[in-house]
Fold:
Amino acid sequence: MILKASQRSHGAQLTAHLLNERDNDLVEVHEVSGFLSNDVAGAFAEIEAVSKGTRCQQPLFSMSLSPPPNERASVKDFEEAANRAEAALKLQGQPRVMVFHEKDGRCHAHCVWSRIDTQQMKAINMAHYKHKLTELSRELYLDHGWRMPNGLIDRSQRNPLNFTLEEWQQAKRLGQSPKAIKAALKESWANNPTVKGFTQALERQGYYLAKGDRRGYVAVDWQGEVYSLTRWLNVKTNDLKTKLGERDQLPSVKDTTQRINAKLTDSVHKHLAALQQQYQPRIDHLTQERKHLAKQHQAERAEQKQRQQQRWEQDSQRRQQRFAKGMKGLWHRFTGKHRDTIQRNEQEALAALQRDQQERDELIFAQLQERQAVQHEINQIDQQQQADTQQFKEQLYRQINETQQHSVKDAFDQVDQRHQERQQQLQTGDRGFGLER
Structure:
């Protein structure tokens, strides 16, 4: 179970995050203990009020508990993890709040403690808490027999960009046949008597007319390569001037290269948009299906809660009827039978509570599996889209120079940004549905 924590203030902001039903499928306040208030907002307000009597600026200690994606963790597992963290951090006996979040077919929890020791009126020192929680995470993985993430085994493996220099070297640009280049330039020159026609013919084949940096007339291809027209066309400068006019009227190689790069960037944007459009309808359909499941699960939780409540009331009434009244009741108290009945009722009540919690856990696990199946399909589609985008990028980069790679980098960065935003949206959902366990 991954444990991440931070010291913080601003209890109102933390309350809004923990009770955010819009970005979670299901939300449950599981525990509010050690406070006069019985709700999250009131509890955090109490912590901040008490902290005014100290110098502490961050009286809240907030920890998230996230089990592996494909493993089952019961309410008891979360509670035990929180208790062990509490002991490791020397927070035993401190007031705390525990809230469960469910989204994307997964369940995680948030536990928040007060750092203020009210007896000594000072904040508990949270020295080395990150290291302590990392060690506890390792222990929890081992205790549960879960496969440990690489980040917990070897800290150097945490960076996903841990590639060799050789893997990052640019691919060589695909070469072109000099014969084919000369044929394309000469064909454009011979078949178009005007500068406008010649310019258009060149651009249809990926070349752009420009003035050389020093002198003469040149063509720049879409990959940024510069070709002297006197050399490639075997035409004198005066003949070029007669058809093309003064060279100073033509754009420079730098300006032409910038124009080519802008056109290349526009083309890349269009291709990336087409890739996104190819996959988006399938993602939208599955997202709606996931939201429908969340509503259905909300109704199932409510129905189970009502059924368990009715059963509890019936069982409580039955247990109460075991107590005799009148003289018989006095006799039972005298003989100890009344005490035996109390013990029996308490044992049955405890068993009933454990039974109800087990039923809730089983329903939660079943529902999470349903939503996990849908989320798995969404993730597969998203991964395929990312793979296609990466393949397109690699193919493109093999054919363009380093300057052009820099010019299109923003286009791919925007795709990465949209991917991250989409992942965040998929992780949070468009609308949450709160429900108690």
